[in-house]
Design a protein that fits this description.
Number of helices: 17
Largest sheet: 7 strands, mixed
CATH class of the largest domain: Alpha Beta
Mean pLDDT: 93
Structural class: alpha/beta
Radius of gyration: 23 Å
Low-confidence stretches: 1-7
CATH superfamily of the largest domain: Vaccinia Virus protein VP39
Shape: globular
Number of domains: 2
């Protein structure tokens, strides 16, 4: 007999007890990703003793950790030893690279300390990072200071944005666009998809220097270095290059009057400024796939609010843009993409 949706999503007491200890699941998963457990087991079944020796782990701790990963459905145990489940293979091994999952796990653990303060300082009217004496993660600063981190982060986003970039390239009208600026375009994944779809197009990615270095590597690997260049600059502080038929800003999340004016100066007459991002479905709410991100923002700044597409349209019009349109982006049919809900395209002219 088929169960109703309500029955399928019902949370019982056991599930609540599991939620209270979900930090164990997150920490155990991150540890597995950081040491490369799933990719090691992808080579074949391994005994607990072999796993402990391979990763130089205390035996009993390793055995209980492996049992816990079985409990949450990431591993399965047989008389021969431990192996990955089919779900783990489909959702982890067959989606992103080991390097990307390792960085995602590292970033998750960097945010963890502030959540320990959530109950004790929930009412504090400021940053929980500050009240706890913690350093909030600053990705731009990390990448400015650490070329290795910048390369890892850039390549991670190249993987995460693949399906979105392909969908945008199939949707966006580029017939009148010859020179494109990809603002905050990082890896150049969107520019590459657009270049492959539009042979007349040339593109420039504008981002911080270490990210541009990583992006150039990717452009060369995909044989697009002749049509895709990189302009290293902090676009929040510095002026932008000019002479573009379109400036596109995709999943960057920076929207303010100063930036809008800089983009105006970078565009040719009647040039287009296209913003593609996930916006709040209604004021005070967050996109489904960005709820965790929005909560994190509120822990840093209690006045943080996720904007709606209508609010950004209004700001663009106030900044002097005309023919501003907003429409929902078609849902992306992909189990590996985070960009499936509340995605909008805002298209405007100078």
């Amino acid at each position: 007999m088929n169960r109703s949706h309500k029955e399928e999503t019902r949370i019982d007491t056991e599930a609540i007890l599991d939620l209270l200890e979900s930090y164990q699941a997150a920490s155990s998963l991150c540890a597995a990703m950081e040491i490369g457990l799933f990719w090691h087991l992808d080579q074949g079944v391994r005994s607990g003793k072999d796993i402990a020796e391979h990763f130089k782990l205390p035996l009993n701790r390793c055995l209980y950790w492996l049992q816990y990963l079985c409990k949450v459905g990431l591993l399965e145990q047989s008389p021969e030893g431990f192996s990955v489940t089919e779900e783990t293979r489909l959702s982890i091994l067959d989606t992103y690279s080991q390097e990307t999952w390792t960085l995602l796990a590292k970033e998750s653990m960097e945010k963890y300390p502030v959540y320990q303060l959530l109950t004790s300082h929930f009412r504090y009217p400021g940053s929980l990072w500050e009240v706890g004496g913690l350093d909030a993660p600053n990705y731009v600063e990390h990448m400015n200071q650490d070329p290795v981190r910048a390369r890892q982060f850039t390549r991670m986003l190249f993987e995460l944005h693949q399906k979105l970039a392909e969908a945008i390239a199939e949707t966006l009208d580029m017939r009148e666009v010859n020179q494109l600026m990809d603002l905050g375009g990082g890896s150049g994944v969107l520019s590459m998809a657009l270049l492959l779809q539009n042979t007349h197009l040339n593109a420039v990615v504008v981002d911080i220097p270490n990210v541009c270095i990583a992006g150039r590597e990717l452009a060369t690997e995909h044989n697009l270095e002749e049509r895709l260049s990189f302009h290293p600059t902090d676009f929040m502080q510095d002026q932008l290059p000019s002479g573009f038929d379109m400036v596109i800003e995709c999943d960057v999340g920076v929207y303010n009057e100063d930036l809008f004016k800089k983009v105006q100066e970078a565009l040719n007459p009647n040039g287009r400024y296209v913003i593609i991002d996930q916006f709040a479905p209604t004021k005070g709410m967050a996109p489904k796939s960005r709820i965790s991100w929005a909560l994190q923002g509120s822990l840093r700044d209690p006045d943080f609010i996720y904007p709606t597409a209508e609010e950004i349209v209004s700001e663009l019009e106030k900044a002097g843009y005309h023919s501003v349109t907003s429409h929902e982006f078609p849902k992306i049919d992909s189990h590996v993409s985070q960009f499936t809900d509340d995605m909008y395209i805002l298209d405007s002219h100078v």
